[in-house]
Design goal:
Length: 442
Amino acid sequence: MPKKIKQFHLIIFGCQMNMSDAERLATVLKNLGYEETKNESEADLVGVIACSVRQAAVDRIYGKLREWQIVKEKKPLVTLLSGCVLPADRKKLADKFDLFIDINHLENLASDLQNIQPEEKLALPSFFSINPSYYSDYRAYVPIMTGCNKFCTYCAVPHTRGRETSRPSQDIIAEVKKLLQANYKEIILLGQNVNSYGLDIKDEIKFPELLQKIDKLGDNFWLKFLTSHPYDMSDDLIAVMKNAKNLTHYLHLPVQSGSDAILKKMNRHYTITHYKKLIKKIRTSIPDIAISTDIIVGFPTETAKQFKETLDLVKEVNYNTAYFAQYSPRVGTAAAKMFKDDVKKEEKKKRWQELNKLIGKQSLAFNKKLVGQTSLVLIDQNKKIDKNYLNLGKLANYTTVKITTKKSIKIGSFVTVKINKVLNWGVEAELSTSFPRRRESH
Ligand code: SAH
Ligand code: SF4
Ligand code: F3S
């Protein structure tokens, strides 16, 4: 009887970087002869790609471990932990898994897996070029660097992923070229702080130049990047965003707080005056830009007045969307050592809800302005409902678009639409034959 091919299943708890880690890890496992399964209960190897940015995500790992303990009583199961794990958690968690793989050392996976299963004869390649098999066949996350040197006092990332390490630009360009040849439509460059790209490699090009080079690789794709730190977002980068043909007019620029005193305690290295000036400069140069942000509410010592400064800033900047989190102390970070987590849970929740309401209004107002516009949409889903197809897609700025048609629209294709109506969660549109204002018009 042929030997059964072993199946693996990975669970992703974190951000896009985390998903990109999983894609690379999956590739290594596939090179070792494993097959990926969507069904966790079929898997012989289950892995968690951890996120440490908030405690809730860490708690979910313990939940999974308890489930797998029960499965293990019935069948052999290899459990694997990788992704972003804080050193303090690593000690507690790693022992509970069969395997812990440092995400910066994926090359160890093969030999470690062999060691715990000596009876298995794994096809151990001598060299892994970790070119991932992507989860999507039209949208790809391409890591350009890993780690972070910024040490915001609340943040787990510099502790989980280490210092900034850039990937050689030739490798990145080669990967994007391959993706474009395979007809990918959206390329999202990933790094915790992309503005520092290249600074750690001698004679390497810097981020604006990298963007320019990638922009020139094709004509019919969206190019995006995450994340920019307001401290070192340069004029060069703004100029490239303005002039490049494939770079979308979308920018994620996390502010974290509207209070200078809190920003200082967060070690963010900028003031609100600097941030506002920067936003003004970007909007003057690129008037149709959509800007989103991240905010933490209830950072230690944050007073009601300081929170109000955050609300005021959000009102003034008028984001198209924002992601906010209630402060969660992370072991080993400077904030966890320096401050008591003194903003009460209920108060954090209240502040979060208040912000949520405000941003909800701003998103709605932003989407209202889109009505009447002709835009490009990248299709993500289609479903037959009665006689029609409900197609869902995204604008370049991530606004969700609903298009009802007689025939289904191909997933992963670009279509031009005219936006007719605002919905609570996006906009409704119809197919259009005219050209969008800009290729990636918002
Ligand atoms: N590199 C990015 C984001 C990294 S983490 C940046 O610099 O903006 C993603 C988001 O999680 C952060 O922007 C922050 O808003 C949130 N976050 C990070 N640590 C947190 C913590 N301890 N508690 C609550 N939210 C946190
Ligand atoms: Fe974390 Fe700050 Fe680095 Fe972003 S810039 S990853 S928030 S330390
Ligand atoms: Fe992302 Fe969480 Fe790591 S936000 S970088 S997966 S700690």
